[in-house]
């Protein structure tokens, strides 16, 4: 098994953190993992993306050629990365921001209004964690508990955020699981 991910959006949306969390979860499951960040010179508001590869075997190249799973937090990310999607891939979008997802082949599009979902739980900073919950609900890559442990592990030095992050994860998971 090898999965190739791209996480993309504006700086400040937690894109790099999202990719790191998924990479950490893969590593915690004894998988081979790569994570490569890419971002503009601006700290917030510029473009940001990262690639993650998770595999049972050694990874020959860290570069993603064909995307299995795209997490797009803004419209420019869809426009930029859609051509690289595998025909049977999955696109997760924050439909609070992304309004137009062109359909291509057999790509599954999972739309979650992550901004609104997080506003309902009073944790507006958790949209990226909400998207991880949606990812967990629509794939069988890892069990739900693995994601929760990965989130806790990533934020181990900030335990004050455990409850809020796990609530955002659960909200995203529940939103997609009920569909």
Automatic annotation (TrEMBL):
Is Transcription a UniProt keyword of this protein?
no
GO MF term list: oxidoreductase activity, acting on the aldehyde or oxo group of donors
Domain of life, per UniProt, equals Bacteria
Q: Which residues form the Pyruvate/ketoisovalerate oxidoreductase catalytic domain?
A: 11-174
Q: What keywords sit in the KW lines?
A: Oxidoreductase, Pyruvate
Protein known as:
2-oxoacid:acceptor oxidoreductase, gamma subunit, pyruvate/2-ketoisovalerate family
Q: Which organism is it from?
A: Lactonifactor longoviformis DSM 17459
């Amino acid at each position: 098994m090898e999965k190739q991910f791209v996480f993309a959006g504006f700086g400040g949306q937690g894109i790099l953190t999202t990719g790191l969390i998924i990479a950490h979860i893969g590593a915690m499951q004894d998988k081979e993992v790569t994570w490569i960040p890419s971002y503009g010179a601006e700290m917030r508001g510029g473009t940001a993306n990262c690639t993650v590869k998770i595999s049972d075997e050694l990874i020959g190249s860290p570069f993603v050629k064909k995307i299995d799973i795209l997490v797009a937090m803004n419209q420019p990310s869809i426009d930029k990365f859609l051509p690289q999607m595998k025909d049977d891939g999955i696109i997760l979008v924050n439909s609070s921001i992304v309004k137009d997802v062109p359909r291509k082949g057999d790509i599954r599009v999972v739309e979650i209004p992550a901004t609104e979902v997080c506003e309902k739980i009073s944790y507006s900073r958790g949209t990226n964690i909400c998207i991880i919950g949606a990812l967990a609900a629509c794939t069988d890559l890892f069990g739900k508990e693995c994601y929760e442990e990965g989130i806790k592990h990533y934020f181990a030095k900030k335990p004050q955020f455990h409850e809020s992050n796990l609530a955002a994860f659960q909200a995203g998971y529940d939103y997609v699981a009920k569909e």
